[in-house]
Amino acid sequence: MAETPPRVPRDLRLDFFRGLSLIFIFIDHIPENALAYFTLRSVAFNDAAEVFIFISGYTAALVYGQSLAEKGALFATAQIYRRVWQLYVAHIFLFVIFTAEVSYAILVLQNPMYSDEMGVADFLQEPHLAIIRALTLSFQPTFLDILPLYIVLLASFPVVLILLERQRYLPLALSALGYALTLTHGWAFHTRPSHEVWFFNPLAWQFLFVIGATAGYARGSGRPSFPDPPWVARVAIAVSVVIAVINFSWTLHWIYDPFPPLFAKALWNYSIDKTNLAPLRLFSFLVLAIATVHVVRPDSPLLRARWAWFVIICGRQSLYVFCLGILLSVLGHFLLADISGGIATQIAVNLVGLATMIGFAALLEWFKGAARRPGGVPPASVPSTPSE
Amino acid sequence: MLRMALIPVGLAAMLALASAPRPANADEPSCTAPRELIEDEPRLPKLAERLKRHLPVVVIVIGGASTAGSAPDNSYPYFLEIALRRRHPGVQINVFNRGIGREVAAQMEARFAKDVLPYQPTLVVWETGTVDAVRNEDVNDFVDTLTQGIDSVTAHNSEIMLMDMQYNPGTASVINFEPYLAALHQTAQLQDVYMFQRFDLMKYWSEAGVFNFIDVPREKRISLAREFYECLGERLAEAIDFAAR
Lengths: 388, 245
Known about the structure:
The structure holds 2 protein chains of 2 kinds. Chain A is an all-alpha fold. Chain A is 67% helix and 0% strand. Chain A is globular and about 65 Å long. Chain B is of the alpha/beta class. Chain B has a single domain, classed as SGNH hydrolase (Rossmann fold, 3-Layer(aba) Sandwich), CATH 3.40.50. Chain B has helices spanning 2-19, 35-38, 45-52, 65-68, 76-87, 105-116, 130-134, 139-155, 178-190, 198-207, 221-243, and strands at 57-63, 93-99, 123-127, 159-163, 194-196. Chain B has a 5-stranded parallel β-sheet with strand order 2-1-3-4-5, sandwiched between helices. In chain B, helix 9 links the parallel strand 4 and strand 5. Chains A and B meet through helix 2, helix 9 and helix 13 of A and helix 7, helix 8, helix 9 and helix 11 of B.
């Protein structure tokens, strides 16, 4: 029942930055939220989505790579698919919430002024089709677009893992090729029958997941992942600073019009395509990731700060906190829209949401810990979930 | 010839003014807006020239259901025409409404060749983005479509103005307008096109208590729409005049 302790010491940075990305995703997902000016997307071309997917790939390779080495491909695959199932159930749950919200919004929308907006409720005209589309992941309205990506990436992960075991750079090479072909040929995932494209194109985003997996697998097997001469870190830090300055000028421009957005004409068009993980977004993330691992070492005092623990536990319970975060951001926006969008309400909604996420993560931590200790809750009643 | 044509137009404008239920007074405090919500940098020099020289002006408003309105005389383009004629008494101004509901930007852009360009408009107002956001269309494609549409209008020697989505606090939690709003505003900026910020304007009106877009009793919905379209038409005329100063 008890999980085998990882062979490599746990890198708290994974939990910390994943937790931070979940917090940012929550904040960014509340539209017209002033706090969203202070998240990653204000200082980088990428946003928290890249961080989340990269770390998910990294930890997936770390955790399931260990299962593969110790218990074989069949067991590792079964373990991965248990996770896929959890994600799938979470997605269906969010679909139900979304449906309830749309049903409520219709009351407001029954107004001749809003007949275009009413289109959002079209799927309720044919509930039988809507439910089937939700079950087949092809119904992806607002906020229901991230989990399908994660599900597809994890569902195909056993193949990546088995290839990683054979030749550790092979998946990366294949994945890079797939990414390049997707960008040049415009390959996309389509939903059926409406032929909308998936907001997150798995054919593009798999590259980032596999980059993470390659690094995570290398660490899990105790071999250095990528060559790392000292000048790389210095360049990465310098480039990250330049990107931050450029991006921050855009954010400032957004708030205060007369402020000039630096290089907007040259760069904006190359950073907008989140669907296909625009190369500039990928570059921005990778540079930032290299800079971050050099600035924040595994034994950094930052990670031992009291407040960091709140972020770390969010990262450790990532699936639950992620789903809860999406749910809370939807509810939060609903409150902001329905009551008042004032700055005080915005801060209150953010704080309550964050407190709920952290409180829930703390509860899960306690529950899992108590379940493992003798005399606590009988272990048999607690599902053991890998901390992937 | 031209002078002759002006007389009935002027009369019509005066009649329209007189017959309006609530004469739209430009300085009416209830639906004014702060300058920064109306004014933008790009100018409309060709329109300015025609207004100055009292040459006929054709404005085509293309967009979705919110442009079509609930009837030809209950839409913001209708009130835009009234406002523009009142502001420029000596000029023959015609505003044509090319709003069709449930269309994405690409469908509207495809209609340009038939519904917009043949009329050799002086100014095209393109209201778009709502259905794209409702259907989660690809933002990148949306930007490409906007750029294409802008190019085809300017290539035909006309000037163009963009208008973003309607604001409604009740829909924002189920429709994610943000990426499409950002795309519209950034494209307008990169292409040097005047952006009429309907979203922010409505938000301002909603927060200032000028209009309540949420709790509208069923019987008041038509009259609310009418009052709102009248205000919007007036503010759009103000923006057009500012760009053509």
